C-alpha cells in the first residue's frame, strides 16, 4: 500500500520517516515526497572509453573509472548535463527508511519532459536504508540541462507499507549502500541495491 499525503505528513511529523537536512511541508505531494539535487556527483573519466566493463569479474571496481566532484554550495553552483551524458549524483537530503516501510525513487515529469531520466533501473529502497540516494541522471534530450543543487527538486520518493517489519540486524546484514560517501563507492560491484 502506498502512503498518501496524510500518512506521509504524520510519519514525517512523528519522525518515522526522517531526512537530513529536514524537508519542508512544500516538498510533500499527494502520494510522494520531492527531494532536491545534492552537490556531489560522479562521471566517467575520459579514459573510460577504452575500458570493457565486466561487473561480474573478480575485483571489478567501478570507482576506478569515475571522477567524483563536489560543487561548491554557493548560490551560483550549477550541474550541467549534456545530451547523451550519464551523471551519478546524490540527493541533497539523506533519507532514513524505517523497518516497516520500503520506498521507491522516481523521476519527476517536469524533468522527463526535458529528456532527463533520473534513475535508469534502480528505484527500490530497502527498509533501514540511511544515506543519500544516488540518482542515475541521463540526458536523452537535445539540449544541455542546467540544474541548481540544493534547491531544484529532482526526484520523488514513494513509500510502501510492508507486510511485516524487517529486523534491524537483518537490514544491516543484507542492506547495502548505507552511509556511502560517493555515488560510486569502492567495491560496489559486490553489493546489492
Strand portion: 25-35%
**Given the structure, what is the number of helices?**
3
Low-confidence stretches: 188-193
Task: Give the helix/strand class.
Answer: mainly beta
Choose one word for the global shape.
globular
Q: How many β-strands, per DSSP?
A: 11
How many structural units, i.e. domains?
A: 1
- Order of SSEs, N→C? HEEEEEEHEEEEEH
Rg result: 17 Å
Give the mean pLDDT.
87
Question: What's the CATH C level?
Answer: Mainly Beta
Query: Which CATH-level-2 architecture?
Result: Distorted Sandwich
Helix content: 10-25%
Largest sheet: 9 strands, antiparallel
CATH superfamily: Deoxyuridine triphosphatase (dUTPase)
Structure explained in plain terms:
- There is one protein chain.
- The chain has a single domain (5-46, 63-185), classed as Deoxyuridine 5'-Triphosphate Nucleotidohydrolase, Chain A (Distorted Sandwich), CATH 2.70.40.10.
- Helix content is 10%, strand content 35%.
- It is built from three helices and eleven strands; from the N terminus they run H-E-E-E-E-E-E-H-E-E-E-E-E-H.
- 27% of the residues are buried.
- The strands form two sheets. Strands 1, 2, 3, 5, 6, 7, 8, 9 and 11 form a nine-stranded antiparallel sheet that branches.
- The chain has helices spanning 5-13, 109-112, 168-174; strands at residues 18-20, 33-44, 66-70, 79-81, 86-96, 101-107, 116-117, 124-125, 130-139, 145-147, 153-161.
- The protein is mainly β.
